[in-house]
From TrEMBL:
<dbReference type="InterPro" id="IPR007918">
    <property type="entry name" value="MDM35_apoptosis"/>
</dbReference>
<dbReference type="GO" id="GO:1990050">
    <property type="term" value="F:phosphatidic acid transfer activity"/>
</dbReference>
<keyword id="KW-1015">Disulfide bond</keyword>
<dbReference type="GO" id="GO:0005758">
    <property type="term" value="C:mitochondrial intermembrane space"/>
</dbReference>
<comment type="similarity">
    <text>Belongs to the TRIAP1/MDM35 family.</text>
</comment>
<dbReference type="GO" id="GO:0005634">
    <property type="term" value="C:nucleus"/>
</dbReference>
<dbReference type="GO" id="GO:0045332">
    <property type="term" value="P:phospholipid translocation"/>
</dbReference>
<feature type="region of interest" description="Disordered">
    <location>
        <begin position="62"/>
        <end position="83"/>
    </location>
</feature>
<protein>
    <recommendedName>
        <fullName>TP53 regulated inhibitor of apoptosis 1</fullName>
    </recommendedName>
</protein>
<dbReference type="GO" id="GO:0005829">
    <property type="term" value="C:cytosol"/>
</dbReference>
<dbReference type="Pfam" id="PF05254">
    <property type="entry name" value="UPF0203"/>
</dbReference>
Length: 83
């Protein structure tokens, strides 16, 4: 799957590769320190934020759409314990 912004696709590929390596080589072996991919994630996150601004997408709009979907489905309850 491509990133939200075309300019972010390579960063997403790099982050996905890092995450997959961390997950299989470290997390599944008991090491939950996720700092290994933090630098590339930060760069990728900034790229996505910029793409959202360029496309006039606000996170509040996405959250509102998501939460509206929850209200339409009585079997789905939002998990407010996540930050």
């Amino acid at each position: 799957m491509n990133s939200l912004g075309k300019d972010c696709n390579e960063l997403k590929r790099q982050y996905d590769a890092c995450f997959n390596m961390w997950f299989t080589e470290r997390f599944l072996k008991g090491d939950s320190d996720e700092s290994m991919c933090a630098p590339i994630f930060k760069i990728y996150q900034e790229c996505v934020k910029k793409a959202m601004q360029e496309q006039h997408i606000e996170l509040r709009e996405i959250e509102a759409d998501y939460n509206a979907g929850d209200r339409d489905n009585p079997d789905t309850k939002p998990d407010h314990t996540k930050s």
